[in-house]
Amino acid sequence: MQIKVTKLPKSEVSIEGELPSDLFESYYQKALKKLGESTKIDGFRPGKAPENVLLSNIPEISILEEMAEMAIADNYVKILEENRIDAIGRPEIGITKLARKNPLGFKIKTAVLPEVQLPDYKKIAKKAIADEKKETKTLEVTDEELEATIMDIRKSRAPKIHMKDMAHKHKEGEEPHEHPEPEADKPATEQLPEFNDEFVKGLGPFQNVEDFKAKLRENMKIEKENAEKEKIRIKIIEGIIEKSEIDVPELLVDSEVDRIIYKVESDITQMGLKFEDYLKHINKTPEDLRKDFRADGEKKAKLSLILNEIAKAEDIKADPEAVAKEVALILEHYKEADPERARMHAENVLTNDKIFQMLESQ
After folding, report:
1. Please, which of 175, 249, 260, 263 could form a disulfide with 111 given CB 3.0 to 4.6 Å?
2. Are 175 and 264 in contact (CB under 8 A)?
């Protein structure tokens, strides 16, 4: 096969070439048979009509197009391997020459895994951690924070008064609030439940108020520590992305934007709203939303490629036993999940976590 590979912007390549005429011609009978199985011909069961009958009922161009599709599908991977092309996603295939007993001319455009020029990521991580530690802060939970959280819990358990009902309670001639919220549910603060042993026992396995406060303080501290850890990770990520040289394929950006929008749509649906109504409310079209999330999608795509490159450079792999446990948990909670996709997800999450542990240890 004569193949010409041309690099294009945004980590794409163009592959132009021809499949030899004898190779292309070898697909003639296969294509005719496949078309015969889906062509209805009076007097014959599907796939049972003789060749001369099929040829009188199926246009030659249809046979040629089916031959081309089969030939490209069978030889695409071989073309990639022989030319050392790390293709990703679905290729765009165009046929440039199509005739019986002739070479099949084609032109393929596909995205490829981009080259990633990593910076000194360990140095970046070390600086991000040092900078964060310079800031004076406490991860201890203060009494004021504890009491504020307890008040929020009490409010969440208070009887709700619908503001529409409140409107009916206004005395005749009394002016309503300047900015009423007729659809909002508000806690009746004067009816807050008393904070005592009985109340905390209703919240969970707590012995008394003191036991509840101790466990709440502990959980709040863990939340603070996790938030701090997340803050450092974001600084490390942003530092590495900023210093990395990478030409992200549009295909990967689009894929990340799809994920973001799917998550938004799922969240809106879970709230009992229609996604179309949400778009009308914010005065956006689906195309507007894609533009809004494009920068986030590009950053996520870059991060994925960077983490993949660091994993290769540091030979970091997820522990097989940990992956198996995570997959079992996923399949237990999501019965319809595809096991292979669950495994890939678990492997990716656990590998990335090991990468961050390595960076945070600098």
Report:
1. 249
2. no
Q: Which CATH number fits domain 2-113: 3.30.70.1050, 3.40.630.30, 1.10.760.10, 3.20.20.140?
A: 3.30.70.1050
- Each residue of 295-311: pLDDT tens digit? 999 999 999 999 999 99
**Domain positions in the chain:** 2-113, 120-145+199-243
Segment 212-257, tens digit of pLDDT = 999 999 999 999 999 988 999 999 999 999 999 999 999 899 999 9
pLDDT band, very low/low/confident/very high, at 43 (cuts 50, 70, 90)? confident
Which of 72, 67, 39 has its CA nearest to residue 53?
Answer: 39
Q: Which residue has the tokens 């909002």?
A: 184
- Distances in Å between the Cα of 223 and the Cα atoms of 144, 153, 174, 269 are 16, 16, 46, 28
With vertex at residue 77, the alpha carbon angle to CA 71 and CA 82, rounded to the nearest 5 degrees, is 110
Direct distance between the N- and C-terminal alpha carbons of the chain, in angstroms, rounded to an integer: 51
If 0-12 CB within 10 Å is exposed, 13-18 middle and 19+ buried, where does residue 227 land?
A: exposed
